[in-house]
Amino acid sequence: MSDSYSLLILPGDGIGPEVMTEVVKVIDWLQANRGLSFDISHGLVGGSSYDAHGTPLTDETMAKAQAVDAVLLGAVGGPKYDDLDFSVKPERGLLRLRKDMDLYANLRPAQCFDALADFSSLKRDVVAGLDILIVRELTSGVYFGEPRGIHADNNSDNEGGRVGINTQRYTSGEIRRVARSAFELARRRNNKVCSMEKANVMESGILWREEVQWVRDNEYPEVELTHMYADNGLMQLVRKPGQFDVILTDNLFGDLLSDAAAMLTGSLGMLPSASLGKPMANGRPKALYEPVHGSAPDIAGQGKANPIACILSFAMALRFSFDQGAAADALERAVEKVLADGVRTADLMGPEGGTPVSTSEMGDRIVAALAQA
Ligand code: NAI
Ligand code: MG
């Protein structure tokens, strides 16, 4: 009935395996009831991989990640691994995946579910119905540019005698490829992109603006492109977020903008993400999907974790890797329905209180709603 999609599941540490169990329920349901077929393999990453193999990511798992249509990851890390050498820390497993797969476009949706609008740091009427997508360049810019370091600087008027250096560096090719990702995504949404940089004070910002405009003019003329200085952009995001649809920005500004956007929409347990790379031979981008949250050691093993961020990350995989937009929509509607029915994990309990459901009950309710979506 349909193609089979290959998916590598890496549950990771802490609440990672708990939330992933709920995603697997969703996958099983889609296979049994919607004719979708997934070729699923499982692997270890982070502390769980270190425990089994002495490394946070084995070469075999890395090779598998390179070969599949999509990787779905839970979370890595935990206090048990805090004293490990830097080279084998759990986070290194995730960083290696991102780097070796060359995942240069990081997608962070900020979507406000009506039932949770009161969790926002902004007023309900400013955020209700909000649905924006931030595309952040992830593999270049000031976090990677050379030269970098801390050096002696014995200039006589430099108190302390040291200098710290980082370099914002973007090539036209790096800008164009992430711009294409943003325009492709805009095509599937409302054909609207706002690109943010600081072209007023940074040459890399001038280049960014010129190259993004070039890609738009030559390849995506139907997309409406605007440019904004990133400081104003952050202000506008907090003032009137509904004016944006797709926001395209660099690594540094994207770090700030996506964290701020997250707080517009509520709990960490609700936030999905995708990281995309070059198109593979089958035309699909290399892709890693993961919730924004970490391994939450404070609640791990207690059945309290909210699985929605991980489930919505899988919805992004359905949409961007598997071309199953209808199934993605249905899954998002199921989440919305369950929230509207007042079903809440502990992290979503408001001041009015109530009885939270467990991780597993939340997953069951979403699957039940999916049957009606
Ligand atoms: P965290 O995101 O794990 O937790 C922050 C707070 O949010 C905690 O109180 C936690 O209970 C809560 N929370 C997070 N996800 C939740 C969910 N799904 N449902 C309900 N509550 C949730 O961040 P933290 O505490 O700074 O880091 C814990 C560990 O996770 C560290 O080892 C850190 O390095 C790692 N980490 C891993 C990430 C990843 O795998 N991508 C990202 C962030 C942190
Ligand atoms: Mg950040």
Automatic annotation (TrEMBL):
Pathway(s) annotated for this protein in UniProt: Amino-acid biosynthesis; L-leucine biosynthesis; L-leucine from 3-methyl-2-oxobutanoate: step 3/4
This protein's GO CC annotations: cytosol
Top-level taxon: Bacteria
Pfam family, one: Iso_dh
Any single biological process term in GO: L-leucine biosynthetic process
InterPro entries associated with the record: IsoCit/isopropylmalate_DH_CS, IsoPropMal-DH-like_dom, Isopropylmalate_DH
Required cofactor names: Mg(2+); Mn(2+)
Cytoplasm as UniProt keyword: yes
Molecular function as annotated in GO: 3-isopropylmalate dehydrogenase activity; magnesium ion binding; NAD binding
Catalytic activity: (2R,3S)-3-isopropylmalate + NAD(+) = 4-methyl-2-oxopentanoate + CO2 + NADH
Domain Isopropylmalate dehydrogenase-like stretches: 6-366
Localization: Cytoplasm
Residues binding NAD(+): 78-91, 294-306
Assembly notes: Homodimer.
Entry-linked HAMAP family: LeuB_type1 (MF_01033)
NCBIfam families, per database record: leuB
Protein name (record): 3-isopropylmalate dehydrogenase
